[in-house]
Structure prediction request, 94 residues.
Amino acid sequence: MKSFFVSIFVALLLSYAGYVLISTEACVRIERATIPVKWGGLMISHFAKPWAFPETIARIELYSLKSRLNVANFVQRQFYMDEQVVCGWNKFDY
Prediction:
């Protein structure tokens, strides 16, 4: 059973890596690399809605956006250090 879940996880991870790397544009690759952060923030926000105040939900969504910007900037610096890549989110201050 354990090997079944490991093989599913590896297949999903390889599919995700292929999805990120299939694009030829650097900004699209960077944006696709932040999808797990986006989905994580959406899930936390969705599960917190029945119990949290609207202000708390707004803070959760703001934190999710800031986290996604941080991950995008990290990926941009990590993998596109030699090239000058300017994407749409570079104008936002976090």
Q: What stands out?
A: Residues 25-91 form one domain. The longest helix spans residues 54-79.
